[in-house]
Amino acid sequence: MTASPLQLTRRTALVGAAGLTLAGCADGVGGSSGSDSPSAPQDAQPTANGNSEAVITVSSAHGLDAMWPNEPLDISVENGTISSVKVTDASGAEIPGKVAGSQWTPDRGTLLPRATYSAEVTAQDSKKREQVSTAAISTVNPNLVIEVDFRYADGTVIGNGMPIWVRFDMPVNDDQRAAIEKTASVVTSPVQEGSFGWVDGTTLYWRPKEYWQAGSTAHVEVKAGGLPAGDTWILADSQADYVYGDLRVMYTDIDNHALTCYQNGAVVNTIPVSCGKPGMETMTGTKVIMDKQSPVVMDSETFGVNNESPEGYKLNVYFAQRITWSGEYFHAAPWADYAHGYQNVSHGCTGMSDANAQWLFNFTLIGDPAEFVGSTFPVQAYQTIGCWTYSWEDWQLQSAL
């Protein structure tokens, strides 16, 4: 396990007060009783390291060799005042920040863990002579950090029900989510209204108010590197691009045993289907196509039903498209051709003939929305890519902001 901030405090207590003190030379300009002795001007111009009396000390609460990403630099100046602070990363890029009193903090509020920086502090003494000093900084190197990635953002064209999917590889605490979400932004083309929402500790979605418009693109950035998350920190900033295709919607009427396929608002096919029988009903509501496989092994023992029992099975199923984590699919079901269009006989999936299943498999994209009506069992958000199980008003309440 990663050491918690409290554990790290104990571990770094011996270096907590560590700092770097840098001073200019003592003032070597001696006084003279001679009437022709020069005197220092009242408004002397600054001179770099010109016999400045300023003494600069740079420190941080956990030491400059194990600085926490979310703590400021403490800067004290004896015999002078701070003129400027410049912090750069290992590549030489400057970290925007500000000085308030005797502390420097980056504008975004954090540095990154497992990183090195250089701080250049300029101070002036009472005669406006400058002292410039530098300090090397290393941030804490925890055993574990949280990394951020984006599912379904590999450049492949995806379906218009797929949200922007920000994934954290370890859980984020409830009280940390707002700060992280504040760093996240989405730019869409064309412009579409949307909102972030958390569905669990590792998943942050952004969905538009309605399904993505045909041909949409989206750029997402999460500049949360260095923010605390769980018992550690987020390793780095992340960004991704999403590309969406035509708007395809699969609309299944469970009671009437029909799947109507729409593309950009027009009906392109209606397929006779058979859904879940009594006691194993197909869930109603909006699901999303999450995966496509042909074949896939379906095994009743994965949900506790023995293969040899009357309701048991283990078989290869073709043209299968997963729409819930719990095992609902669109798929070919040639053993039930007698029921397609007439009767619900499945264990919860939406079955159809081989030819229709193949057509549907070729027609759809991962991320296409699949709407179901007619059942009394609504799908829950955790059972699918669940941002569409909420009304728009309720979805906005999933935001931590």
SSE layout:
Layout: H1 5-11, E1 19-23, E2 55-59, E3 73-78, E4 81-89, E5 97-100, E6 103-106, E7 116-124, E8 130-138, E9 148-151, E10 157-158, E11 164-168, H2 177-182, E12 184-189, E13 194-200, E14 203-208, E15 217-222, E16 228-229, E17 232-233, E18 238-244, E19 248-253, E20 258-263, E21 266-272, E22 285-288, E23 291-293, E24 296-299, E25 314-317, E26 320-322, E27 329-332, E28 350-352, H3 354-363, E29 369-373, H4 392-396
Shape: elongated
Give the rounded overall mean pLDDT: 86
The CATH topology label of the largest domain is L,D-transpeptidase catalytic domain-like
* The CATH H-level homologous superfamily of the largest domain: L,D-transpeptidase catalytic domain-like
Q: Give the biggest beta sheet.
A: 5 strands, antiparallel
Count up the domains.
3
Q: SS-based structural class?
A: mainly beta
Low-confidence stretches: 1-48
The CATH architecture of the largest domain can be given as Beta Barrel
Radius of gyration equals 31 Å
- Termini distance? 29 Å
Kindly report the spatial arrangement of strands forming the biggest sheet: 1-2-3-6-5
How much helicity do the residues have? under 10%
Estimate the strand proportion: 35-45%
Q: What CATH first level of the largest domain would be assigned?
A: Mainly Beta
Protein name: Ig-like domain-containing protein
Pathway: Glycan biosynthesis; Cell wall biogenesis; peptidoglycan biosynthesis
GO biological process, one term: peptidoglycan-protein cross-linking
Keywords: Acyltransferase, Cell membrane, Cell shape, Cell wall biogenesis/degradation, Lipoprotein, Membrane, Palmitate, Peptidoglycan synthesis, Signal, Transferase
